[in-house]
Specification:
The structure holds three protein chains of three kinds. Chain A is an alpha/beta fold. Helices cover 35% and strands 14% of the residues of chain A. Chain A has one domain: NAD(P)-binding Rossmann-like Domain (Rossmann fold, 3-Layer(aba) Sandwich), CATH 3.40.50. A seven-stranded parallel beta sheet of chain A has the order 3-2-1-4-5-6-7, sandwiched between helices. In chain A, strand 1, helix 1 and strand 2 form a beta-alpha-beta unit. Chain A is globular and about 50 Å long. Chain B has a single domain, classed as Rossmann fold (3-Layer(aba) Sandwich), CATH 3.40.50. In chain B, helix 1 crosses helix 9, helix 4 runs parallel beside helix 5 and helix 5 runs parallel beside helix 7. Chain C is α/β, with parallel strands linked by helices. Chain C has a single domain, classed as NAD(P)-binding Rossmann-like Domain (Rossmann fold, 3-Layer(aba) Sandwich), CATH 3.40.50. Chain C has six helices and seven strands. A seven-stranded parallel beta sheet of chain C has the order 3-2-1-4-5-6-7, sandwiched between helices. The longest helix of chain C has 29 residues. Classes of the chains: A alpha/beta, B alpha/beta, C alpha/beta. The interface between A and B is large, with 47 and 46 residues.
């Protein structure tokens, strides 16, 4: 039995690598999906799926940082698919710098995309979920917000902030039968896709991070990975999709305000 | 004298946490720069210990998140005290009451700016001397509302206080190699703080009383002590037993 | 049929949660071995792929170990192991007798451990395994009216999960837990305070909710989730 049969999902940041693989699972489980992202270029990643399911996948260009555009995206989903059951928020921004070097602009953009953008999307979808007294909302956060990671301060702060935001919104929307949870993955294997630079990001001048386990910013003892599952230091995007399907289906009806860790054992919250 | 000759910078919203931390540390020999939101008169009126008073210099700032203002102030303070051994941030703010989707974008941004961006900006300008001399302690006061679900928490506050957790952990991870520790104290209701109703009414501990400014100051001092150099990235939950993880 | 060709062992005691798990795995095509000690709970269960195993006493480590070794021999490859072993809390709190205290720890903590132990060994030998443990919210966070022994026993299950996650990961075995508030069948009580959820129309968790959470954690694709506790409490407690 399909877990998302007859459900409609809106994917904000639907052009991301994670969303593109999750889309395959959503198709298999019977859902309709509206992909929303800031530029058309992102939708090339899901061309095969869109060709296979032309009536079940639609796309739209809109920005999570503009409340009116979020409202338009939700209205479009309702128009095309008749209702909205699920909101998946994949939009993210890494930013740059540590506490001392972070440019103010990058700090603000990270908060806008990772925190206020999520709020904008939830506020826009709320009337459609309230009308059916049903909703599943997934916020894609990161271990960077949960545990000790040598990531940019913009990322650590805004991802931690968005996890707190998720809890507050979960409390507020429970009375309408809407569950909201976040997930906090560690590093992901996005090698299937070509990298597209994040909008407003600053090109990196220093070499990329060393592979997990090899140490990095933060001293000789600091780790940047080190799962307990051998031979594979990072997550496969199908594993990530599995978590998302659970969070968006009827199976997780009693789960709200939780942050699901998925990190191969790199961080085990007591 | 636990903090003899230690240079301490405290960024405070003006409540008892900042005041009592300044007072108790000054009594232990620290040289304190207490930066508060106006009015300054209110701050100095509450410092009654004469000895401690000599060790505390008060400053006011209108916007902790203003890089311009913080840069100028930090230069002024550092000229006077030379270096920094301890930084404490105790910034709170109240989001407007009302339905979650009726808080204006402007108000929401203001709350996040005052609590979260403010703390980051203070650290940006006072951290460099610590990194340079490779020692120091940062203590960030946050709220239990950033740690777990407190019924009635306005979402901008949950966002900001949880975000401070990210600053603590990231600071600890990145600057551990410079021997600078980053820790936090997550508080519930505290006497002498202008806190919103959802904290004072919904966070009840097991003591039947609120925390005092001294309770919080003592936790801050524990984390700022040189003997606490193996504590880092930790958040002490100081809420009288409401939330114990 | 998401668990076709998988062999799942479930231990059910003190709650219908384990029964719901067993039924869910059967519906998804698995072979299920169900350990039970309360005949009334399994009276109506019947299925070609279901083997019922009567346990005299979940506090008896020797019984659990020898039973597990026998089951492992019979089925050859165990894929999934779910422990839903619990008992009611006592209202005696810190005045609990030594005997009651032992009862509590030996059932919940040791019972879970020794149920898993022989099966874990089989999983590690095969380089594949999924372990899920059902525990009470009372082991996660402070709740009024909970006895120290109940809190301790349930908290220990979190420790077990993190430990197995860390040590057995090298054999591609994951271990996770589902921490629940009181369930609709009266099991997993969690003190005297308000521990209901806040989701309108679904304020109390059901054994089926637990079954679905365990299904999620023990799926093949859940290979990157380990040492985690899923807080399934309808929004009563969020971290």
């Amino acid at each position: 039995m399909q877990k998302l049969a007859n459900r409609t999902a809106v994917f904000i940041g639907g052009g991301s690598a994670v969303a593109t693989v999750a889309l395959r699972h959503f198709m298999k489980e019977g859902a309709n999906v509206l992909l929303v992202d800031v530029k058309d270029e992102y939708f090339e990643r899901s061309l095969p799926e869109r060709q296979q399911y032309p009536d079940r996948i639609k796309t739209m260009v809109a920005s999570c940082t503009v409340p009116e555009e979020m409202a338009q995206a939700m209205a479009y989903a309702k128009e095309v698919f008749g209702k909205i059951d699920i909101l998946c928020y994949y939009s993210g921004f890494h930013g740059m710098g540590n506490i001392m070097t972070v440019p103010e602009t990058q700090w603000n953009i990270a908060l806008e995309v990772n925190c206020f953008g999520f709020y904008n999307a939830v506020r826009a979808v709320y009337p459609y979920m309230k009308e059916n007294q049903y909703g599943r909302i997934m916020n894609f956060a990161s271990i960077g917000g949960r545990a000790n990671r040598g990531v940019a301060i913009t990322y650590a702060t805004s991802k931690a902030g968005t996890i707190g935001l998720t809890r507050a919104l979960a409390m507020a929307l429970a009375k309408d039968g809407i569950t909201i949870n976040s997930m906090a993955p560690a590093s992901l294997d996005t090698s299937e896709f070509e990298r597209i630079a994040e909008k407003d990001s600053v090109p990196m001048k220093r070499p990329p991070m060393p592979p997990p386990g090899a140490g990095g910013p933060g001293g000789p003892g600091a780790t940047r990975g080190g799962s307990f599952i051998p031979d594979r230091p990072i997550a496969d995007l199908n594993e990530i999709a599995h978590v998302i399907v659970f969070m968006c289906s009827d199976d997780s009806a009693f789960l709200t305000g939780d942050c699901l860790d998925i990190n191969g054992g790199q961080y085990m919250q007591p | 004298m636990r903090f003899e000759n230690k240079k301490v910078v405290i960024a405070s919203s003006g409540g008892s946490i900042g005041l009592r931390t300044a007072g108790l540390m000054a009594e232990e020999g620290a040289c304190v720069a207490l930066v508060s939101l106006p009015p300054e008169g209110k701050v100095s009126a509450q410092l009654t210990d004469e000895v401690a008073c000599e060790n505390i210099v008060s400053y006011t700032v209108s916007d902790f998140a203003s890089e311009e203002e913080m840069e100028a102030l930090s230069k002024k303070i550092l000229e006077k005290i030379g270096t920094v051994d301890v930084i404490v941030t105790a910034l709170i703010d109240k989001a407007p009451e009302g339905e979650w989707n009726e808080i204006s974008d402007e108000d929401a941004h203001k709350t996040v700016r005052n609590i979260l961006t403010g703390a980051e900006t203070v650290l940006k300008f006072f951290l460099p001397p610590m990194i340079e001399k490779e020692s120091g302690h940062v203590v960030i006061v946050t709220s239990v509302a950033g740690r777990t679900n407190v019924p009635g928490t306005p979402w901008p506050e949950a966002l900001a206080y949880a975000g401070l957790g990210g600053v603590i952990r990231n600071g600890a991870t990145v600057f551990g190699k410079n021997s600078v520790t980053f820790n936090g104290v997550a508080v519930g209701p505290v006497e002498g703080m202008d806190q919103p109703a959802y904290i004072t009414e919904n966070v009840s501990g097991i003591w039947g009383r609120k925390a005092t400014g001294d309770d919080v100051a003592n936790a801050v001092m524990y984390l700022s002590d040189d003997l606490s150099c193996w504590n880092t990235g930790e958040i002490v939950d100081l809420n009288g037993g409401f939330f114990a993880l | 049929m998401r668990f076709e060709d998988r062999t799942v062992c479930v231990a059910a005691s003190g709650s219908d949660a384990g029964i719901a798990c067993a039924l869910n795995y059967l519906a998804e095509g698995a072979k299920v071995v169900l350990y039970y000690d309360e005949p009334e709970r399994v009276a109506s269960l019947e299925n070609d792929r279901l083997k019922l195993v009567r346990i005299q006493d979940f506090k008896d480590a020797a019984e659990l170990i020898s039973t597990g070794e026998e089951i492992a021999r019979e089925y050859e490859k165990i894929d999934v192991c779910v422990a839903a072993i619990t008992r009611p809390d006592s209202d005696k709190g810190i005045d609990m007798s030594e005997e009651e205290y032992q009862e509590m720890l030996k059932t919940i903590s040791s019972g879970t451990l020794f149920f898993i132990q022989p099966l874990l060994k089989n999983m590690m030998d095969h380089d594949y395994g999924r372990v899920a443990i059902v525990m009470s919210l009372a082991g996660r966070i402070n709740l009024p009216g909970v006895s120290p022994a109940y809190a301790a026993a349930n908290a220990s299950l979190g420790g077990i999960v993190r430990n197995i996650g860390s040590t057995a990961g090298v054999h591609f075995v994951t271990a996770n837990a589902v921490a629940v508030g009181p369930l609709s069948d009266g099991s997993y009580q969690a003190g005297t305070g308000d521990v209901q959820g806040i989701i309108k129309g679904h304020e109390v968790g059901t054994p089926e909710d637990v079954a679905k959470a365990c299904e999620y954690l023990t799926s093949e694709l859940a290979s990157w989730t380990t040492g985690e506790i899923l807080d399934l409490n309808g929004g009563r407690f969020m971290i």
